[in-house]
Design brief:
Length: 193
């Protein structure tokens, strides 16, 4: 990926210019933005993508972004390659802090594999960096979509023949996905609260 990544769906909010400590925003991706995101995520299409977000700023400068996100997407079935529609619904909740640097976060997803459960939990608790008082809400929504959609869509009744899987694919299925581990830890945290 190039050093200067330009998000396909960008909605910059300047938290230092907010009139009140709490602001509600509804954002929706245009047809062009949805097509570009579908290409990035290797989807057949994204027919809709929207979120209703509340941006709350605390007295210490930390900003919470929270609200529902919905998307209608179409992916290829992993067994038949036929189109599989999916309604994706998730709740966005992210804490941004001006006291955290991007250097504090792992830059490579493979770095997560070597972390213990305790280290992963600490990473989950760590806020995202808030740089220059700006948050790209569109990119936040796009990242939540990427995590929330079905990673192995199957058309109803479709089965992948066992002989089709290569040894490498079988090994990859056994290897834990660091993002799935983070999602599982997030669920554990939410159940505790």
């Amino acid at each position: 990926m190039p050093d200067t990544f330009a998000p396909e769906f960008s909605r910059i909010v300047k938290t230092d210019e907010q009139v009140s400590a709490k602001e509600k925003l509804a954002i929706e991706a245009t047809e062009k933005e949805r097509a570009a995101l579908a290409k990035r995520f290797e989807l057949v299409s994204i027919d809709s993508l929207k979120a209703e977000l509340t941006i709350s700023t605390a007295s210490n400068g930390e900003v919470t972004v929270r609200g529902p996100m919905t998307a209608e997407i179409v992916q290829n079935c992993v067994a038949t390659l036929e189109p599989v529609p999916e309604l994706v619904e998730d709740t966005i909740e992210v804490l941004f802090s001006p006291h955290v640097s991007e250097d504090d976060l792992p830059s490579d997803p493979d770095d997560l594999e070597d972390l213990s459960e305790e280290e992963l939990m600490a990473l989950l608790d760590q806020p995202e960096p808030l740089v220059d008082g700006k948050i790209d809400l569109g990119e936040v929504v796009a990242q939540f979509l990427a995590v929330a959609m079905n990673p192995y869509p199957r058309k109803e009744g479709a089965e992948l023949p066992a002989a089709v899987k290569t040894e490498e694919e079988a090994d990859e299925e056994k290897r834990p996905n660091p993002f799935a581990q983070l999602a599982g830890l997030k669920d554990k945290l939410e159940k505790k609260n």
